[in-house]
Amino acid sequence: MFRDRRRRTPWSKILHCSKIRALFVLLCCNGWNLNYFRYYGPLYFKRITSSTNSGAFWLTSAAFLTRMVLGILCLPLLRYIIIQNRMSVTVLRKSIAFIAQVIPGTIALTTIAVHCKESVNIVIGLLILGFNGAFIGSGFINALDLAPHFAQALFAPMQALICVITAVMPFMVAYISELVKEKVYVNVMMIGLVYVVGGLTFITFGSATVQPWDIAEARRMVQSSISVTHLGYELDREADDDEQNSGLC
């Protein structure tokens, strides 16, 4: 009974925390676009280039490879910033959100109406995912920043939603592609809007500072643990006294 009480997750405070909601929006938008491009990428490259089916799949793989490489290249810079304490964690996280979300979203939105050469279209597709690689290099923006004592409880529903997005994405891509037919710019515009909305939401409302309620709840858990330990000690001592008294009788 006491153990369950000590480990109770403060869901009411979590749900009312604007910083948590901003993080939730950011992760959902990033997960949506990442999975959408995973399935829509081959169709995108096939329609904007003269590539064959296999060529379109190779270009999609190249886009994700670009994302991974640029994410790895970010690591030394981020490590230097953190070790040298060049900026606060909140500023760093928001800078990453700008690079990984707002910039690729802006690229997508500003090029949808531009008729470019095939090579330029390929570069644009690579850059959209490439800039998002900063999200990898940062070690992801996660709940450990806001609520380290309840990060495990927060991670589960967030990850569950990402899994749901991954599961339904093939159907979403098929439905939207059938709906807009050959209008590639509609898909690109949607990807751009999702990136920009996620990035600006976190930049405006997000944070990487441990929330006061997390510290307060952690202290309450410690105090409750001490109280329960003390109560257990008292009960054990009373049991020993009763046993000794019964032995004397």
Name the features.
249 residues, single chain, transmembrane, Growth Hormone, Chain: A, 10 helices, 2 domains, mainly alpha, 0% strand
Describe the structure.
This is Major facilitator superfamily (MFS) profile domain-containing protein. It is found in: Membrane. The chain crosses the membrane at residues 20-37, 57-83, 95-114, 120-141, 153-176, 188-210. GO terms for molecular function: transmembrane transporter activity. Keywords: Membrane, Transmembrane, Transmembrane helix. This protein is mostly helical and 249 residues long. It folds into two domains: 12-210, Growth Hormone, Chain: A; 212-248. Helices cover 81% and strands 0% of the residues. It is built from ten helices and no strands. The chain has helices spanning 2-6, 11-15, 18-48, 53-83, 89-111, 118-131, 134-137, 151-180, 184-205, 212-248. The chain is elongated and about 65 Å long. The relative contact order is 0.17.
Write the SSE topology:
Blueprint: H1 2-6, H2 11-15, H3 18-48, H4 53-83, H5 89-111, H6 118-131, H7 134-137, H8 151-180, H9 184-205, H10 212-248
Helix pairs in contact: 3-4, 3-8, 3-9, 4-6, 5-6, 5-9
Instruction: Specify the helix fraction band.
Output: over 70%
Number of domains: 2
> Sheet with the most strands?
none
- In round numbers, the mean pLDDT is 80
- Count of alpha and pi helical runs: 10
Distance between the termini: 34 Å
Q: What does the radius of gyration come to? A: 25 Å
- Strand-pairing-aware structural class: mainly alpha
Question: Can you count the beta strands?
Answer: 0
Would you identify the CATH H-level superfamily of the largest domain?
MFS general substrate transporter like domains
Strand residue percentage: under 5%
Order of helices and strands: HHHHHHHHHH
CATH names the topology of the largest domain as Growth Hormone, Chain: A
Membrane topology: Multi-pass membrane protein
GO biological process, one term: monoatomic anion transport
Transmembrane segments: 20-37, 57-83, 95-114, 120-141, 153-176, 188-210
Subcellular location: Membrane
